[in-house]
RNA sequence: GGCAGGUUGCCCGAGCGGCCAAUGGGAGCGGACUGUAAAUCCGUCGGCUUUGCCUUCGAAGGUUCGAAUCCUUCACCUGCCA
């Protein structure tokens, strides 16, 4: 083993991870602690390119990797060009295979999303790896002899996801074999780079321990592992869904404004957990926020801190400041007409705005559709009928209403709102 | 390969010749109450040029004045038998 650089490690790391609730499962904790306090541990965490962007769940892993690196350990971030071609089995059924070009493109995008969070310099510099590098040239015979031989099918069948899939209608051999690939990754990184720790989401625990087991069987080596918890709401349902779907980190797939709003709307019961998992605020800072929140929940101090810190991590301080200003303007509760034109314009720009010419002003229903506030005219009409459509914070009653010059605020803006918190702007030229 | 059952709207699941754009539940959306929270209650929930029209009930044909509902073929899934 080529372990042990001169990097000094933070002995409180494991306690901090535990306090943050990041250890849902782990291999022997005392052994893990011993490893993490004695020297810089080379660890890996993998991301499969199953979409053009990573999402909220992946962010947990990215931030955890950074916590480990900050504590002196050495990251290997794996983007699965190979595993992404196969697909990790999930309860919702067989995945559709993506072609090689698509996967290759997504690998590039996912790498670019991870890189800003890690440091690629210094003694414990991070390394990006791709499992295509050690699988592309592997022959089927070698794979079956060297890897497959270590996997008893009865054990594979006993895995929860596989069991559920067998009951729910079956699983292809392709997805059934996924665990072999991910396990092989751990072994490959162990052999090539001396990686001895893997972590991932708790839904990956079976794959992770599969790797540790393979290292033991194939090399007689010891590997460590832990899993972060699945993020759920207080009612037990999965987090990470909002209006449209997943919470993407890519600003073109989810606007930073919408991302910020998601955090600002986190339910009280989850704020504490979220602050611990998704921010680098210290224990003292978080406990102070919790105290404030418990005392005066209506101030929403927890949600505000969460939204600010997480949005800053993902989209930067400049963008976050813009969004905060926009939110203050839109949710301020004051008369829209009192806002300065440029303030209003900037706010609506964050929330999402379109431009129309004064001579071709559409009806309120069409404006709702064009701004994306409603998915169809029927939905827009329904919003009006239900009293959920507002122009400049005043309820609109007539679906066919066409805004005129008197409705402009801030010089040349229309402020559309659906329900309590969905705003869009229309710039009239 | 044989036999039986299944494939319904975002999800689950009724319907079994007209009264079906299709019961019910969940999710979503809106309203009320709030703190841009939770819980609760109410409403809504295919599309449109909206008293009507169009497209949906695995796919393609067919029977019928008329089908998600009947028939034929195909695809996929499940179970039983080889």
CATH class of the largest domain: Alpha Beta
Strand percentage, roughly? Answer: 5-15%
- Count of strand segments: 13
Poorly predicted spans: none
The CATH architecture of the largest domain comes to: 3-Layer(aba) Sandwich
Number of helices: 20
Classified in CATH, the superfamily of the largest domain is HUPs
Description:
Pfam families: SYY_C-terminal, tRNA-synt_1b. It is found in: Cytoplasm. There is one protein chain. This protein has 429 residues and is an alpha/beta fold. The chain folds into 3 domains: 13-230, HUPs (Rossmann fold), CATH 3.40.50.620; 245-315, Tyrosyl-Transfer RNA Synthetase; 352-428, Structural Genomics Hypothetical 15.5 Kd Protein In mrcA-pckA Intergenic Region, Chain A, CATH 3.10.290. 47% of the residues lie in helices and 13% in strands. The protein has helices at 13-19, 29-38, 56-70, 83-86, 100-114, 132-135, 140-147, 153-158, 160-168, 173-176, 178-193, 205-219, 256-264, 268-278, 283-295, 301-315, 317-331, 341-351, 364-370, 377-385, and strands at 25-26, 42-47, 74-79, 127-130, 197-201, 224-228, 241-242, 245-246, 353-356, 389-391, 394-395, 413-418, 422-428. Helix 11 packs across helix 12 (205-219). The longest helix has 16 residues, at 178-193. It is elongated, with a radius of gyration of 25 Å. The termini are far apart. It binds one RNA strand of 82 nucleotides through residues 169-170, 234-235, 237, 241, 243, 261, 264-271, 296-300, 303, 327, 330-331, 374, 376-379, 381-383, 385-389, 418-421.
């Amino acid at each position: 083993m080529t372990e042990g650089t001169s990097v000094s490690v933070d002995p409180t790391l494991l306690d901090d991870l535990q306090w943050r609730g990041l250890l849902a499962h782990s291999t022997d904790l005392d052994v893990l602690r011993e490893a993490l306090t004695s020297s810089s541990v080379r660890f890996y965490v993998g991301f499969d390119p199953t979409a053009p962007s990573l999402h909220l769940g992946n962010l947990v892993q990215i931030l955890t990797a950074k916590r480990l690196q900050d504590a002196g350990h050495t990251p290997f971030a794996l983007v699965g060009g190979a595993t992404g071609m196969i697909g990790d089995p999930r309860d919702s059924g067989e995945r559709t295979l993506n072609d090689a070009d698509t996967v290759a493109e997504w690998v590039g995008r996912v790498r670019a999303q991870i890189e800003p969070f890690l440091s690629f310099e210094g003694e414990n510099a991070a390394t990006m790896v791709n499992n295509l590098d050690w699988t592309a040239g592997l022959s089927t015979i070698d794979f079956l002899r060297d890897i497959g031989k270590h996997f008893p099918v009865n054990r594979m069948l006993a895995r929860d996801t596989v069991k559920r899939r067998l009951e729910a209608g079956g699983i292809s051999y392709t997805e059934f074999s996924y665990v072999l690939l991910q396990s092989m990754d751990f072994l490959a990184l162990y052999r090539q780079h001396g990686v001895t720790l893997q972590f991932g989401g708790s839904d990956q625990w079976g794959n992770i321990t599969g790797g540790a087991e393979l290292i033991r069987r194939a090399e007689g080596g010891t590997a460590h592992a832990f899993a972060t918890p699945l993020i759920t709401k207080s009612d037990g349902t999965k987090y990470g869904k909002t209006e449209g779907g997943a919470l993407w980190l890519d600003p073109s797939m989810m606007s930073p404004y919408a991302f910020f709003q998601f955090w600002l709307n986190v339910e009280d019961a989850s704020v504490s957990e979220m602050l611990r998992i998704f921010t680098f605020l210290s224990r003292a800072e978080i406990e102070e926020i919790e105290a404030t929140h418990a005392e005066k929940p209506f101030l929403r101090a927890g949600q505000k801190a969460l939204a600010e810190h997480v949005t800053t991590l993902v989209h930067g301080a400049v963008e976050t400041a813009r969004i905060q200003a926009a939110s203050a303007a839109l949710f301020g509760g004051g008369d829209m007409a009192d806002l300065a034109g440029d303030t209003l314009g900037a706010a609506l720009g964050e929330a999402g705005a379109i431009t129309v010419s004064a001579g071709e002003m559409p009806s309120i229903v069409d404006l709702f559709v064009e701004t994306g506030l409603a998915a169809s005219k029927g939905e827009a009409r329904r919003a009006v009928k239900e009293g959920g459509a507002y122009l400049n914070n005043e309820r609109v009653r007539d679906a066919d209403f066409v805004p005129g010059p008197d409705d402009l605020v801030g010089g040349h803006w229309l402020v559309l709102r659906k329900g309590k918190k969905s705003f869009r702007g229309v710039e009239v030229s």
